[in-house]
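Researcher: Hi, I'm a grad student and pretty new to this. My advisor asked me to get structures for two proteins we've been looking at. I'm not sure of the right format, so I'll just paste the first sequence and hope you can take it from there.
Model: That works fine. Here's the first sequence with its structure tokens right after it:
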Amino acid sequence: MIDWLTVHGALRPFYDDVLLGAGVTLYTSAIAFGVGLVFGLVLLMLRVAAGPVARGLVAIYVSAIRGTPLLIQLLIAYYVIPSLLDVTVSPITAGILALALNTAAYGSEIMRAALSTIAPGQAAAAKALGMRSRHVWFQVLMPQMLQRSIPPLTNEFTVLLKASSLLSIIAVNDLATVARNATLQSDLPLQVFTATAAVYFVMLLGASSLSRVMERRFARMLPNAH
């Protein structure tokens, strides 16, 4: 099996680069996901608490992101936006920006759906006890919303991690780029892509395991949340 995967050493350069490529994939995905969640939370707060103009703009943004391919968003982030702003943007920065803006749209909808499952009486009861609106939001609603958002957000992260392979289009040296270059150099696509798929699987398995740990911790923190 080892000989089949390495083809008697022919693919050793590829395996030397796999960890680097996987690191770039995890780095870009994690940063984009984190930034996207923060921006998505801002979009959510505007959607539920701002005026009609802000709510309309957020709805248009979310619809535009969800209604266009990520590849087009990536190309816009790398070619169009820098040209309009007359700035230079590195491929990895453009990739993270595109992934983050995409995550923000989907994440805001996921969190909005989770928020809608919380009984309205909880906020009313908290206000009746004298809590200010921001305390109701951060101490009562947000923890429950985040707990209920963990499974769908984990799914969103897995989609994002897999979609990050599109960054190879703009020459980001991620795992997909490493695999593509190794295939061109070795002409051994079966072994290269089998190994690449296995690395992606391990990363996604790790993300799912982390999600379950977080979900259990939130459940212990909010044992009586409904």
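Researcher: Oh nice, that was easy. Here's the second one.
Model: And its structure:
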Amino acid sequence: MRIVEIGPAPIHEIEYLDAAPGGGSQLRRLPLLRGIVDGLPAELDGLLIASDLQGRARAGDGELRLLGEALAAEYAMLAELEQVPAPAFTGVVLAGDLYAAPGADRMGATGDVREVWRAFAGGFRWVTGVAGNHDLFGGKQEQSRFERESGVHLLDDTAATLDDLRIAGVGGICGNFNKVNRRAPEEFIKAIRRALARRPHVLVLHEGPDGGEPHLRGNPEIREVVARSETIVICGHVHWDRPLVTLPTGAQLLNVDARAVLLERAG
């Protein structure tokens, strides 16, 4: 599977509140972009991909919901208008960091993101992906039960084959392994090598590679490893001014930090 192009203009935007650097919250918009791939499994009409949805959107009842929950609801609304494929034929890939403080007024908040995953698992074909460094899934036993819920495929140094798509994932970031969802840099790289050895069509990371240009920030060691493959690498954690980079070796890097991308087959 190769990404042919991603349209520059959003097909839809979701207004949400995000924590402001000086305190309080600010109003932002989450763009939904449409991309084209050269092929998808017959069971799928689309792949919805997103990460770093660290905000809150106001629901119809006035309550502030996690932005990922709002994305699931808005996508379903667009599907009813026949603007996007039906959720039942859309797979979802989440690259982590889906939590925001209840008032969307505190940067770097960490918390439970199971409801975001469940919002997709409940109506979409399946949902897979990795944890970010701000994501929790309850305690150990709660997370274990959550991972057995229908339609949920949480990856970490593991892989899943969904509708003939081989998807591998490594969650978290490099850093102090005494903190949540972090591992030593050398262990992180080893996990990515193991993931690529499974020859996935898609590799999902939270912390991803740099894009080979100064303004496309990321981890250069990760780029050196993934550049040897021809997989699509989905990542977030830092924002790029454009979502897609194709390395000279053929690997494609799809950065979905604070954006959502819908991939559909050509034609």
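Researcher: Is there anything I should tell my advisor about the second?
Model: You could mention this: The chain has one domain: 12-265.
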